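Collaborator request, handled under Task 6.
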Amino acid sequence: MEQEKKHIGPIGIFDSGYGGLSVFKEIKKKLPQYDYIYLGDNARIPYGTRSFETVYEFTKQCVFKLFELGCNLVILACNTASAKALRSIQQNDLPPGKKVLGVIRPTTEIVKEFTKTNHVGILATTGTVKSESYKIEINKFYPEIEVFQHDCPFWVPLVENNEIDTEGAKYFVEKDIHQLLKQSLDIDTIVLACTHYPLLLPVIQQFVPDHIKIISQGPLVAKSLKKYLDVHHDIELKSSKNGTMKFYTTDDPLDFESKAEIFFGQKINAKHIKVT
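Structure tokens returned to the collaborator:
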């Protein structure tokens, strides 16, 4: 029994920066009983413009740091990491008894519930768009759905610099949405395929016609995680349940705390951590 207790640990949430906090917020709301550790690799952002090899190495280092901290399950709450690193880590690197999940599949496997025209738009970082992960995953489940993508390189900086309510934000959001929608007049669903983007929702809604549904990932990932834990009893039993949260960043904790509140909706205390 003592031996078994040693293997019980928190659920890890990883993101390249702050965006994953918008997903974590929804996970915590749906599954408040578990212990969590959040790790933001803020010292090395952005991931969205980096190569597959670099994102894979950085993500692997952070995932293994969370394993070191006792996590048996790690959620990659980052679309770029999910697109560029998840499959390789799952296939090549996982120690026995450890699991890593991403944010793309929970979104793609239920996108059919939202679209009537089978024309779906994806707004994402350059890295996620180039990986074609959304197109591949959606068509794996629903070959009949046409997927239209557009990358929005300025959206993450706008959110991280707290410039959501500026004319600059309106300019870039309107321009990018126009670029996506002109690819097809039949798009009736838009997936915000970056965890930063839900914070721009009030601006996005100004430029998206009312008949188009806008999907944020947080609630979908939280729902999917609950299902996963309901089915995978071995992982569920190894997940500790004291309702605690710890936050780590590879950069300045004070800076992380000030920006994290925007994403997480409450004050947090963060500590610095080295992952290499």
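The cover message to the collaborator said: "The mean pLDDT is 94. The longest helix spans residues 52-68. Please let us know whether this matches your experimental observations."
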